[in-house]
Amino acid sequence: MHAQEHDTNPVQDESDRPPGYWALLRSVPRVVARVGLRGLTYRAVAKDAGVTYGLISYYFGSRDALIEAATRLASEEAIAQSKVGPSSDKVQDFAAGVSKLLAEDPEAQAFQYELVCEARRSKALLPAVEKMYENYVAAVSASLDKLGVEHDEALARVIFAALDGIVLQRLVHDDEKMTDESIEALQALLAGLRPRRRKR
User: Which of 55, 147, 187, 192 is spaced 20 to 30 A from 123 at the CA atom?
Assistant: First the structure.
């Protein structure tokens, strides 16, 4: 990959990129967890990743592009690991991986909230945040389809807003039992929604 060929779709088979590329992306949430988004420098990310900071320019071109790629990776991995995407047609499987995700990778989730707050001050970050939320709502919508729940985008946004709040509460309280109870309550609400009408 040449310096001018900066990546815009980081979530791929990891064998198609050098380890330093993925190390940089996964270092971003850890650095932000320690020093905040405004403390995210090339040197801090490179030191955490164990690579030279010149690789950031080589792979991504700019700090904003690095943040955008790290955001996309964090959110797409969260969708897959939390089971918010359409993994099953059983309501009890929807978002069943949220607790495990939060136990294993709280920094990546906290990073996304930091990004949301910073985007209110730095409009350059707003497109990455908007795309992140679009991806989450689309994953919820696809899950509702798989579950056979009649819905529109507004309902998908409401379901995601509930999940978003559950994740934020876990970051505040660090209470796995509370998270699990909240997910079960959300699943019960989904189970009570009207099934999609089947075509004759």
Answer: 55
Q: 80-86 contacts: CB < 8 A, separation 24 or more? A: 81/105, 84/136, 84/139, 84/140, 84/143, 84/160, 84/163, 85/139, 85/142, 85/143, 86/139, 86/142, 86/143, 86/145, 86/146
Give the model's pLDDT for residue 12. 53
pLDDT tens per residue across span 42-52: 999 999 999 99
What pLDDT, on a 0 to 100 scale, did the predictor assign at position 11?
Answer: 53
Return the higher-pLDDT residue of 195 and 150. Answer: 150
Q: CA 109 to CA 131: how far, in whole Å?
A: 16
Give the pLDDT of residue 18: 85
N-term to C-term CA, the chain: 52
Structure pTM? 0.86
How is the chain split into domains, by residue range?
65-191
Q: Which residue has the tokens 């309550």?
A: 185
Rounded to the nearest 10 degrees, what angle do helices 126-147 and 153-173 cross at? 110
